[in-house]
Protein 1
Amino acid sequence: MATQEFTITLPEHMAELVRSKVADGEYDSPSEVIQDSLEALLEPDPRIEKWLREEVGPAIDAYRADPSRLIPIEDVVVGLKERHARAIARH
């Protein structure tokens, strides 16, 4: 596989994580840590796939079956603000 050299800047906590993965022997080099991390980004996240299948899909189907069940965003925002105000008042 062809490679290309990159220079990257990481926040200190991420740079330390890369260094510790190499120091612990999990990886041979910082490049391997970054490569493995990027490959993980290309794989579907099973948690998101499950959420889409179990919650989003059925919600879309329910909306299509009965669009009158849709709550306008303005009503949702008002409800959230009221709920937030009640929560603050309790504390």
Note: The chain has a mean pLDDT of 94.
Protein 2
Amino acid sequence: MQESQQPESQLRANELAVTTDEEGMRVDRYLRHHFAIGFAECQRLVRAGQVRVNGKRKGAGGLLAVDDQVRVPPSMMEKARFARALPSQPPTKRQPSAAKSSSQPSVARSSPPSPLVLCQQLELARTPLCVAINKPSGLAVQGGSGLASSIDALLPLWPDTDGELRLVHRLDRATSGVMVVACGRKAAATLSTWFRGQSDSERAAAVEEGIASPEAAMQMIAHRGKERVEKTYLALVHGVPSQLSDHLEMPLNIERISPHLRRAYVDKKEGKPASSHYTVMAEGTKAEKPYALLRVMPYTGRLHQIRAHLEAIGHPIVGDPIYDGSDPNYLPQPKSRHAKRRLRAPNQRAEKASYRPQPSAPPIRREEHRLGLHAWRLRLPNGSEFEADPDAQLVAMLGRHAITWPPQEWSPHFS
């Protein structure tokens, strides 16, 4: 006789109820979504019978229905994904002696905001489909070794979302500005389709049909019903381009310049198609050197696409530690002697990754403490549009280059 299902309020501490948004998920993917374990571990638990659906065994590839009750071992609750984002408790410090405390007065330090306060500060807007975030420069989208926090770690703690937010696209850690996260699995599938945008096969078909310009190809594909996201960036670059508005069609490839650092470069033979369009919004000078503020719209989403395209035309982004070759202080350098040794004598695996040693550089003494790239606007195919003006740090950076925000001779309706 089939075991009767309990209401959600009567679920055990190690039981989860499948929601409407999770309907149709595989058992292993459901476990991977809720717990910080790998797929191999998920499948091992399912095969061992330690995971039950409605009290019965179910294969790792089995599909879940609404209100299904998934029971896991009690020990797995310690690996729940909401727990990995909780801020770690600071280690207890030894209290200084009375003599030491009297001779060295304590200095008050401002503690970082709590995750809940940080989420409220970052949120720009919310729709049934997504939450728009104003990501600051320096905050990574995905966590990793050596990173104390990230957008991904904050998502389970986001207020009034039941921990169902999901990443659908990314910004570089040094890039600031607007990005969106999906409100659930179905919304993530929709947004991921939009962000994938124009495929290479569609571009090739458009060119074969006699459409020469990339802009015309984009319009033709749009008329076919292809939905895509429109992204607009602000970039502070060295020099002023000779063409005040131009379309850049440059294939990009990827090379690894250190074990943990990659960069894009123009490769007309083996590179993947990449196209961007820029327009000069304002010009400025600093120490008798010209600078320009560009509005850039990428039509494809390659790694470091805007940074690589602007460097290729001789106008790298100010403060870019990878592509700004005008100052030797900005050359990327391996931080550890072990990384330098691997670059000098790469092993077989490193040779396949195309390691390219970089020349030595003096200690970095950067005048700019952030990358001059900002994700300004984001428009979705459903009509939703989000905008994040430059933060105070970027506005001050523009001011040091005699560029005001917003530019005096620029109209908000400029396109």
Note: Residues 82-107, 221-225, 333-367, 411-415 have pLDDT under 50 and may be disordered.
